[in-house]
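Q: I have 158 residues here and want to know how they pack in 3D. Can you give me a structure?
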Amino acid sequence: MARRVQISRGPLLTTLTVAAILETAWTVYIAFSLPRHYVAIHWKLAWVGLDVGEVATLLAAAWASWKRRAILALFTSSAGTMLLVDAWFDITTARRGDQFQSSLTALLIEVPSAIALYWVTQRTIRQINRPRMEEAGVRSVRHLPLDPIDPRRERPQR
């Protein structure tokens, strides 16, 4: 029998909030401290590595879809995020002559693909939670409580 891991809301909320504050401070710091020009030694590795990661998450999503596994939601959301990161870096690191091609690729391929993957994520999560949504009396996953539904508890308002 699998053991369930309980995550308390308070410590999780605190951890995520502190992480966001620390990341904000780090972002402000690097915004002022990074050099305007920098030559990356492992430039090809960074780009090829990102693309390999995209391929891996897309293949994992294909596998999960084929096997009809709920983990599909994780893989599609990860693949969508990686595509948006790829579009961001394509555009922000392109030389002047490559800006148009990078922007076009982002707008026509990467961003629409990410949106489609997020749509699959949302549909998968909704399908997984449909019985719980009906039990809780809510129409949207956004209104579904994280904790298990207790039939003795009052139903949430719509």
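Q: Anything worth noting?
A: Residues 42-138 form one domain. The mean pLDDT is 88.
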